[in-house]
Structures
1.
Amino acid sequence: MKAIIPVAGVGTRLRPHTFSHPKVLLNVAGKPIIGHIMDKLISAGIDEAIVIVGYLGNMVEDWLRKNYSIKLTFVTQAEMLGLAHAIWMCKPYVNPDEPVFIILGDTIFDVDLQPVLQSTISTLGVHEVVDPRRFGVAVTKNGRIVKLIEKPDQPISNLAIVGLYFLSNAGSLFSSIDHIIDNEIRTKGEYQLTDALQLMIEHNEPFTTFPVVGWYDCGKPETLLSTNETLLQNNPVTKAYPGCIINDPVFIAENASIENAIIGPNATIGEHAVITDAIIKDSIIGNSAKVSSIMIDNSIIGNSASISGSPQQINIGDCSEIRLR
Ligand code: UTP
């Protein structure tokens, strides 16, 4: 089955890191966000992916082509007109009679997809949230979705749609998106996938939900760090680092250099990073970053950035150079 993966967005909430890298290539627990997603999809039987790229799209394409051998098609969305528009761009590559699975490229999940991909009716992944105002939400009755609303102002349901969509018939999805684009139906300025799906419901297409218990948001620095912590669980380090203390769980790239340091818990250390005389916990250190004579906590250090000095909480982008005294 084909998966459609939209990753065209700019990732503004993860700046400065997304100035130089697309969001989906940011490292969490030892591999890029999209790597976690691809591995899950492939193990569930997805054998083809259509990836919608835009901002820094060449970097996404290069990385995926280098690391995966399934059939990959890249479609460019030049203007961010919304998720429905992104999906609509895939129309020439999808047979209208076949089912399709859509997953947002920044949604790491832990759910058994096998029953979802075998469903005979369309089904959307949902997760109960306390504040649903920044999500599309599903209102259900007797196991069926009766209404979908994008970013509701009033609390109508706390079942947030979290970025996993199984459509049993791609043709009816594309007809619905055609309708909202032809009739300029936008919510908050964008052609919303939620609105296209709501139109399908109004045309009596049956929809159910499936629970996504393990749902790990990567959209903001604090959620990237909490996802790093969750995914690192049960990731003990086997290599010895003489003169260092390793507090599991951590991920340390094989070729990173660690000297006189305390690493972890919940630290990811990227490829070729050089750590000297430092204490690092609850943090992500980028590839080829240099960290010395410092204690850091709850921090994200970009690739090739360099930091030394007194203890701080920081969020610095690629190639920055900071000396704190
Ligand atoms: P988001 O709006 O959460 O991601 O879209 P973003 O735009 O990258 O991040 P911010 O809001 O600027 O921080 C969810 C997913 O849908 C894709 C995004 O790339 C992301 O993977 N998307 C969204 C598109 O591909 N095209 C669109 O027009 C909108």
Note: Residues 6-13, 23, 52, 77, 80-83, 85-86, 104-106, 219 surround uridine 5'-triphosphate (CB under 6 Å).
2.
Amino acid sequence: MEKTLVLLKPSALQRALVGEVIKRFEQKGLKLTGIKMMQLNDEILNEHYAHLSERPFFQRIKDAMMTTPIIATCWEGLDAVQVVRTMTGATNGRNATPGTIRGDFSVSVQENIVHTSDSIENAKEELKRFFKKEEIFNYNHLTLPFLYANDEI
Ligand code: IDP
Ligand code: MG
């Protein structure tokens, strides 16, 4: 099944939203297959935000991501990338639909609580960037028959 990366940003830690965000993905039916706290540095952020390196706010978002540790998580499920992205909401919390994480908890474009992979290809790259192979776990989800129909999986 598909896997995707969710980073709980410093805004999630400072706002005491770590449990809330993890709860949402758990309750949706996604399987938590990796989780760790990390202090990010310039090197990993240059890679992670390479697509924004020419933007005027590049240094500022990197600095914001280093103000506290972050929590990196890996979630697995059918169409996990798209499911998580939908639950994330628009980049700017002020425009994000209520019911999404950013729509419910953010009023900012920068301080928007989570990073979530935006495509299957990027999810693969990003998971490699944040997790060693042995930090992603494979185990049976006992509720599987109640999460999906036989012909879906
Ligand atoms: P995403 O997080 O919704 O995928 P991206 O365009 O990949 O959005 O941008 C990565 C992060 O950079 C955003 O989550 C946000 O924290 C920050 N960011 C994006 N656009 C802006 C902006 O215009 N001003 C300030 N920060 C921004
Ligand atoms: Mg992005």
Note: The chain has a mean pLDDT of 98.
3.
Amino acid sequence: MRKKAILVTGAAGEMGHELLRRLAAEGRNRLLTLDVRPLPESLQGLEGHVHVVGDILDPQLLARLVSEYEIDVIYHLAALLSTRAEFTPETAHRVNVEGTMNLLRLAAEQSQWRGQPVQFLFPSSIAIYGLPDLESKALFNRVREWEWNQPRTMYGCNKIYGEMLGTYFSRYYRQLAPEQPVTIDFRCVRFPGLISAFTLPSGGTSDYGPEMIHAAAQGEPYACFVREDARIPFMTMPDAIRALLLLAGAPRERLSRLVYNVTAFSLSAGEIRDRVQRYFPDARITFRPDPKRQAIIDSWPADVDDSMARRDWGWEPEYDVERAFEEYLIPNIRQRYGR
Ligand code: SER
């Protein structure tokens, strides 16, 4: 008998960290997690949890997992973020596209074997948008899901193709087969920049937000790599995981789309600095824009329209900007660094 499991890829990353805590807190103790790294100590020892150190590009490993587990839900979080992906675009393509394809194929196989769709949760990103210049960014201030889908990063291209592949597997996979196969239940959230109080991102382009706050809390100087007026939407990590879980729990018939924008607040880098200085008046924050990373941020929208998520599955962030700093970021970050 195979054991039932929820599979989480990229479990040792920032989102995995918060998702595992939440799933464990909800008593969902049949987790199978996968990452190229071991899990941090704080996440080890969760009851009923098995962690496998391995690569989503390893077909033998995926075959072994399928032989041992009946997987009915997949949170496919593993990815190389936007800045890192620009340095190694071919590797990013392998991890972000081929890796996603491997997981979708696994989900499709499992769905057919079970005779019921496997649920597939996929985090996408504002990086799938690409505005050509700052005039357009000012004019098209809050973009909707189908607007400006013209990414200028490898990561953005990979993510939008992942959305399309998921949609294909959900709606059209083996559409010409004599018998209609059971397809997967693909659900996707496009996230803005994410900020956690407990972890730091690595290799993203929205990293200046979290880096600025964590540096100030440690009393370290920070040179921000984008201009003061650079504006994109952000969200706290607990809200991001809430969004994924809310979408996972929504009745299928309520969902009019497979891919949804979500957001919480939109801030310029200068506004983040001002907020940080309210709590850490001695913070030494300067601006030393890197024109190349700046250009990526300039192509991302200043805000996104998440009214579809609000309407279809009751999305609403718990943390607006005030609560995000006052109740989540600052107290937890102070505690983390003992300041
Ligand atoms: N935070 C991500 C990045 O900067 C965007 O999804 O790459």
Note: Residues 81-82, 125, 127, 155, 191, 193, 204-206 surround serine (CB under 6 Å).
